[in-house]
Amino acid sequence: MTCSHCNEPMDACACPRDASGEVLLAKDQPVRIRVEKRKKGKHVTVISGIDPVASDLATILKKLKNACAAGGTISDGAIEIQGDHADRVQKELDGLGFRSRIVR
User: Which of 56, 66, 67, 98 could make an S-S bridge to 93, C-beta 3.0–4.6 Å?
Assistant: First the structure.
């Protein structure tokens, strides 16, 4: 059998797949970016909508932390970056091929 997207044999295919085994590309994942205000007036940029099975959240987190020069973590399937970095995060995610939207 071959992959319908890349025409490689299934064992050699590197296409991102969701939990059901279907190909799920970055452009097909609607990503939402929002800024939350936490305790003591701290802001956190929360990125949700990225499929944790089809995407490598740890690698995306590392790229976003480097781009924003801030700390961050993965919590409940969402990426959290310390501070208000919505515009910078959207630019980075668009560069990675995701369709992202800032929700105010």
Answer: 98
